[in-house]
Specification:
8 strands, 6-stranded mixed beta sheet, single chain, binds zinc ion, alpha/beta, two-stranded antiparallel ribbon, disordered N terminus, 6 helices
């Protein structure tokens, strides 16, 4: 029975890939409940966004996903894509602030949904949606990314699992950032969201063209700002 179900799901995934991304697919892949933060963070939002969190690097939770409640309207003009936001059960984060960070990032005038591109991004927590931004433990990110033969393990990075509806964000990276961004966690988090959602929207990796230039958001900035002899400046925005 299990393998038959898997075959059915694979077939469904194939069909989903053939139709427009606005079509809701793989509905049984949705989170199995509502994410409730253990505590509401007492800090102002900007302070929370800039502060390190305490999520272990090698955390490997069982992979149960919970949906962040609420709705955030699309802002920019263009074709509306709906997304869900989910957090892996066992990760403690203020979901209200996380939702704000993701949605404000994606709808910033410098981002994909901010009016410079051709799409608008709306957050939903029920009904049809095109993809799911998922904050998960390192172990769970690695196993989901492996579905598309993406090896995120060694560097503990994030990925877009294109054969499924999930954009996987590594919660440890969210909490700790990268050497390329240093203490600038707010901008690291914006880059992380814009880069991985950028993959979902069909964008591929780019490189640093010229020393001193802003790094393209689709450069793998978590790992490096250098391409050959050129060193770029960290940049979280698609349209800086
Ligand atoms: Zn990438």
């Amino acid at each position: 029975m299990k393998s038959a179900r898997r075959t059915l799901l694979s077939a469904l995934a194939m069909v989903c890939l053939l139709v427009a991304t606005t079509t809701a697919c793989l509905k049984d892949d949705a989170g199995t409940g509502t994410y409730v933060s253990a505590t509401a963070d007492p800090r102002p939002y900007e302070q929370w966004l800039a502060a390190r969190a305490d999520i272990p690097a090698d955390l490997a939770l069982p992979g149960k996903f919970l949906t962040v409640a609420g709705h955030d309207a699309a802002k920019g003009p263009g074709r509306v894509l709906r997304y869900r936001l989910e957090v892996e059960d066992g990760i403690d984060i203020d979901a209200r602030y996380l939702a704000r960070a993701v949605h404000e990032t994606l709808n910033d005038p410098r981002s994909w949904g901010g009016g410079r591109g051709t799409i608008a991004l709306e957050r939903v927590s029920s009904g049809d949606s095109s993809f799911t931004v998922t904050l998960a433990s390192t172990g769970t990110v690695n196993s989901w990314c492996a579905k598309d033969d993406l090896d995120t393990g060694e560097q503990r990075v994030s990925c877009n699992v294109a054969s499924t509806r999930r954009v996987m964000l590594n919660a440890w990276r969210w909490s700790a950032g990268s050497p390329t961004y240093g203490d600038d966690l707010a901008n690291y988090r914006r880059m992380l969201v814009n880069h991985e959602v950028g993959h979902r929207l069909g964008h591929f990796h780019e490189t640093c063209e010229r020393s001193g230039a802003l790094a393209p958001v689709m450069m793998q900035q978590t790992l490096t700002l250098v391409t050959g002899a050129a060193t770029c400046v960290a940049n979280p925005w698609p349209y800086p």
